[in-house]
Amino acid sequence: MSKALPDELQAKYSAIRQEITASIEHFSQVKVADYFYELCFCICTPQSKAKNAYVVQLELQNLDFRNKEFDPTPLLRNPANYIRFHNQKARRLLEMREQYDEIEQMLHSDDSPFNKRRWLTENLKGFGMKESSHFLRNIGCRDLAILDRHILKHLVNCGLYNEIPKLGTISRYLEIEKEFKNYAADINVTIDELDLLFWSYETGEIFK
Asked: Which domain holds residue 196?
């Protein structure tokens, strides 16, 4: 296994390192009152454009979805910020809102981010390890791998795997996460930095 980033990724990292650091710091400054809407964002993102999910997040926030009764389906169905599987995701947004007091209590507990991730995975419908990691990262938790297709592709590019590994179980997720962390430690770059680096390399920008 290589103990360094591939040359093209190292060059990219050197060029945008300050921007990556600023983004990670921004996540740690998200207001507690906005956690609900960060959760809305992560419910909407799977198989949809992150920018579209962000527009939906802002619209839900402007309409006070946390406190007002309305069906979010039209917002998700809007062609301007279309969210795939909008009917299912709208139902999950409504279910999450009903459950949010319990979720909020868990988030404010002294439990570790790793246990909080496990709780979300086991208790929030439609939320797997990736979505739970993404949400917790977006509210300032560190050292949780968001194993989406961009990350898995680059784990191959960095020499950890010969082909894109499959994620079938929580134990497999944790196994790949451990390998990712070991590699990050070897090259002295955090997995949070690598996540944003890989995302930026694929999309041309740093986003949440």
From this structure: 7-27+146-203
- Asked if residue 56 is part of any domain, the answer here is yes
Total domain count, the chain? 2
Catalytic hit among 89, 116, 130, 208: 130
According to the 3-state scheme, what is the secondary structure of the chain?
CCCCCCHHHHHHHHHHHHHHHHHHHHHHCCCHHHHHHHHHHHHHCCCCCHHHHHHHHHHHHHCCCCCCCCCCHHHHHCHHHCCCCHHHHHHHHHHHHHHHHHHHHHHCCCCCHHHHHHHHHHHCCCCCHHHHHHHHHHCCCCCCCCCCHHHHHHHHHCCCCCCCCCCCCHHHHHHHHHHHHHHHHHHCCCHHHHHHHHHHHHHCCCCC
What pLDDT digit, counting tens, does each position of 93-149 carry?
999 999 999 999 999 999 999 999 999 999 998 899 999 999 999 999 999 999 998
125 tagged catalytic: no
148 catalytic? Reply is yes
pTM passes above 0.70: yes
> Do 126 and 49 lie in a common domain?
yes
